């Protein structure tokens, strides 16, 4: 980063944009340059031998880039930038389905003045929550798309107000929309993990926990629904520790519970908080902790200090010296440990009853990191695999990530997280994947489905731009930096459906919709099957595909017919088999001749295929070897058993033969494909099916029913955990056996059971299923041949 910041400065200087160069250099020097290098630049400015000095300075900057550690940046931070960043938070709200994410967000928007009235999810006023803007979301009462918004929170510190700018993303809880959670977490600096006070850690909580860990997202926890019967925040705190393995401790205790839930006691400052006035807008804070809670407050404060002593050196030292840390020391330790992913402070409340949200917002500002405290890196394409650090300074060259695309009534909207530099309206940016230059005609800040125009957005912020053609996950720079940011994890599709519009007149709308959905959602894929010529859509599960079929109907007035859901099988081999294949065809004119010999065997990496040539003595010239490699790729794309992808295979070609006139790329490509297909059965070719990690939660009385359901499906039960009311069963089950499971679960549990399913791994399908599938595939091929 530093190298190119310098490069830009040098460019400005060399090409005569003196004013820009001067200010760029000033900012840049003040911001991050080591002293030695600053003097080098000063010397350089004075020098008349521009070219050689420029080269030297560039070289030095490049060599120095490694020393740009977060500590260095923090120590040398421009105070104005540091102050600006400290007032910015980019946070996400993630949790199990129905924990109350949308309800919490609605309160956040209300208390920060972004909305004037609160509307409930599935509320009687039929308006629906602000963040569930899609008609389908409001109807089903679930969040499908993540929605971005921003708000300003006035935090009162010692009677003085401090204004924080919070960018917030409400994410869906259902696993089928997991990509929405993934892309939100990729660009956020912190998260609020919401748990239900009755259910504690649930199946989807475990999934979002895994995602937060994947992207190193620090979090605070909020135990919601304290007004519900059976609410018990301590169960949730214990489960965050035991199930999610995150050291966590409450920083509040509840005043009452269930319908007597009144407020919370802040056990750091030892103050009681009551939420009064219309919709709990007035927070009454008092030093009088209710007498019956004083002992519990002191006990839980001690638990908090002990937990912090486990994860924070400063508190550990005080603890060992038997000294009581001050409130400020406790707060500073919570922030350090939370930012370092070693701890999660737990708060509690009831969003529906308008209690506990304001202190949660304070905690977002107090304990979650600002954009300057997170290390973000990019790949420097000019240096191979070298990673460079990005620094969220407005004055540096621009680097941003397009993390989400969305089409609305005004056109194509691209959400961008600005990692470095400033994004200004009317400027040009480069897409580092396509190397195309794009103009940024309009920048907006999103507020669910509404927007506000802005002229400029600073480093560390999130915004959306119009009229930029790109794909989800593209990196944009100001042109000088050959950077690309690592993209997010996109899971493989596990299910597909054939689909076509009912009326041929809808074909146009149908293809428009397919294009849009694909661009917006990397887990939704569309292809046309070469043989059947059917359009196939694939995605993360039944609900995922169902939602798109429904959106086609509602948003594009295109009703569709869909086929049976299909599983994405894979094919693989289990042992080595040698081959020696000769392709020799003579049909009048020039013939085809190619001989390839070698072996296939299982690859060390079971998800990937590998091709290698070990041909010596030029028996197959290089020009034909690349055709062999292509042939292997093609053979893996359409496996010999079912026509599904082959994974985990390795092909080595070590000998062959050519013919002076009849050998060609075509002949070697085809011979390799044929050789692979012929050797496949001998190499123990088999069909793999996706196994799903399935978690089922239901009241204890249904345990027998559920076990029977899962046994019928040949599930491998990994764990059963019996709680006071509910039990949780975790198992691996083939996707094939899970079709229609939701209705059967409903029937078996009187609608009280719920489940979540996530792809786990591929495993050999049972032999009878393999036989059945292969026979069906062959029959299909035969019928096509006879047609
Ligand atoms: N009793 C009670 N109910 C709540 C509370 N918060 C939310 N709910 C209810 O729980 C249900 C789910 O709330 P949502 O806000 O849609 O939950 P969500 O986590 O956004 O749901 P998904 O987006 O579908 O995952 C709604 O019926 C809410 O009214 C609470 O504090 N107490």
UniProtKB/TrEMBL annotation:
Top-rank taxon, per record: Eukaryota
Transmembrane residue ranges: none
Domain Tr-type G: 86-372
Pathway assignment: Protein biosynthesis; polypeptide chain elongation
Keywords annotated in UniProt: Elongation factor, GTP-binding, Mitochondrion, Nucleotide-binding, Protein biosynthesis, Transit peptide
GO biological process terms on file: mitochondrial translational elongation
GO molecular function: GTP binding; GTPase activity; translation elongation factor activity
Compartments reported by the entry: Mitochondrion
Principal cellular location given in the protein's record: mitochondrion
Similarity annotation: Belongs to the GTP-binding elongation factor family. EF-G/EF-2 subfamily.
Record's function text: Mitochondrial GTPase that catalyzes the GTP-dependent ribosomal translocation step during translation elongation. During this step, the ribosome changes from the pre-translocational (PRE) to the post-translocational (POST) state as the newly formed A-site-bound peptidyl-tRNA and P-site-bound deacylated tRNA move to the P and E sites, respectively. Catalyzes the coordinated movement of the two tRNA molecules, the mRNA and conformational changes in the ribosome. Catalyzes the GTP-dependent ribosomal translocation step during translation elongation. During this step, the ribosome changes from the pre-translocational (PRE) to the post-translocational (POST) state as the newly formed A-site-bound peptidyl-tRNA and P-site-bound deacylated tRNA move to the P and E sites, respectively. Catalyzes the coordinated movement of the two tRNA molecules, the mRNA and conformational changes in the ribosome.
HAMAP family named among the record's database cross-references: EF_G_EF_2_B
Protein name: Elongation factor G, mitochondrial
Organism classification: Eukaryota, Fungi, Dikarya, Ascomycota, Pezizomycotina
């Amino acid at each position: 980063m530093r190298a190119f910041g310098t490069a830009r400065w040098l460019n400005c200087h060399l090409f005569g944009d003196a004013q820009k160069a001067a200010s760029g250099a000033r900012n840049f020097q003040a911001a991050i340059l080591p002293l030695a290098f600053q003097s080098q630049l000063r010397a350089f400015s004075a020098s008349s031998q521009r070219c050689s000095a420029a080269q030297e300075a560039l070289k030095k900057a490049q060599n120095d880039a490694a020393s740009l550690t977060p500590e260095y940046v923090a120590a040398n931070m421009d105070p104005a930038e540091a102050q600006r960043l400290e007032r910015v938070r980019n946070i996400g709200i993630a949790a199990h389905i129905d924990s109350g994410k949308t309800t919490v967000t609605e309160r956040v928007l209300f208390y920060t003045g972004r909305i004037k009235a609160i509307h409930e999810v599935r509320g009687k006023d039929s308006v629906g929550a602000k963040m569930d803007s899609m008609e389908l979301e409001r109807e089903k009462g679930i969040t499908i798309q993540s929605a971005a918004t921003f708000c300003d929170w006035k935090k009162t510190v010692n009677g003085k107000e401090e204004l924080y700018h919070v960018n917030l993303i409400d994410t869906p809880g259902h696993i089928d929309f997991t990509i929405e959670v993934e892309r939100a977490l990729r660009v956020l600096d912190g998260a609020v993990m919401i748990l239900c006070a009755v259910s504690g850690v649930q199946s989807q909580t475990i999934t979002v926990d895994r995602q937060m860990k994947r992207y190193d997202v620090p979090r605070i926890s909020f135990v919601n629904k304290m007004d519900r019967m059976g609410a018990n925040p301590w169960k949730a705190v214990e489960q965050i520790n035991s199930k999610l393995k995150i050291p966590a401790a409450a920083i509040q205790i509840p005043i009452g519970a269930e319908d007597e839930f009144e407020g919370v006691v802040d056990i750091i400052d030892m103050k009681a908080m009551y939420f009064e006035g219309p919709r709990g807008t007035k927070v009454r804070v008092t030093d009088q902790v209710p007498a019956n809670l004083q002992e519990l407050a002191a006990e839980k404060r001690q638990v908090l200090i002990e937990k912090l002593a486990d994860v924070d050196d400063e508190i550990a030292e005080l603890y060992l010296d038997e000294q009581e840390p001050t409130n400020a020391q406790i707060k500073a330790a919570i922030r350090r440990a939370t930012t370092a992913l070693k701890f999660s402070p737990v708060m509690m409340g009831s969003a529906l009853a308008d209690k506990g949200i304001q202190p949660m917002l304070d905690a977002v500002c107090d304990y979650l990191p600002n954009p300057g405290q997170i290390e973000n890196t990019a790949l420097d394409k000019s240096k191979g695999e070298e990673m460079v650090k990005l620094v969220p300074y407005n004055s540096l060259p621009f680097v941003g990530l397009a993390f989400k695309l969305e089409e609305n009534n005004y056109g194509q909207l691209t959400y961008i997280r600005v990692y470095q530099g400033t994004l200004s309206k009317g400027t040009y940016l480069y897409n580092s994947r396509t190397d195309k230059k794009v103009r940024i005609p309009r920048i907006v800040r999103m507020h669910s489905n509404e927007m506000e125009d802005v002229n400029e957005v600073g480093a560390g912020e999130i915004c959306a731009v119009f009229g930029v053609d790109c794909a989800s996950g593209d990196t944009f720079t100001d042109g000088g930096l050959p950077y690309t940011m690592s993209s997010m994890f996109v899971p493989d599709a596990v299910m597909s459906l054939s689909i076509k519009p009912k009326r041929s007149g809808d074909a146009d709308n149908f293809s428009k919709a397919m294009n849009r959905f694909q661009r917006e959602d990397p887990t939704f894929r569309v292809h046309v099957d070469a043989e059947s010529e059917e359009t196939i859509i694939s995605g993360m599960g039944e609900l995922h595909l169902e939602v798109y079929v429904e959106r086609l109907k509602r948003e594009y007035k295109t009703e569709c017919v869909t086929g049976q859901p299909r599983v994405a099988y894979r094919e693989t081999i289990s042992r080595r088999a040698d081959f020696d294949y000769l392709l020799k065809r003579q049909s009048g004119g020039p013939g085809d001749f190619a001989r390839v010999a070698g072996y296939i065997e299982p690859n060390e990496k079971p998800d990937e295929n590998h091709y290698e040539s070990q041909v010596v003595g030029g028996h197959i010239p290089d020009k034909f070897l690349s055709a062999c490699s292509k042939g292997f790729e093609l053979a893996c794309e359409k496996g010999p058993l079912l026509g599904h992808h082959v994974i985990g295979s390795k092909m080595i070609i070590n000998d062959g033969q050519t013919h002076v006139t009849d050998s060609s790329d075509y002949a070697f490509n085809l011979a390799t494909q044929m050789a692979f297909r012929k050797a496949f059965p001998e190499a123990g070719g088999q069909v793999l099916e996706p196994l799903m990690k399935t978690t089922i939660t239901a009241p204890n009385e249904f345990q027998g029913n559920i076990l029977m359901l899962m046994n019928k499906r040949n599930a491998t039960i990994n764990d059963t955990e019996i709680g006071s009311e509910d039990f949780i069963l975790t198992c691996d089950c083939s996707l094939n056996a899970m079709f229609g499971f939701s209705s059967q679960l409903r029937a078996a549990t009187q609608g009280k059971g719920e489940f979540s399913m996530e792809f786990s791994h591929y495993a050999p399908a049972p032999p009878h299923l393999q036989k059945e599938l292969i026979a069906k595939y062959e029959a299909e091929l035969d019928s096509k041949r006879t047609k």
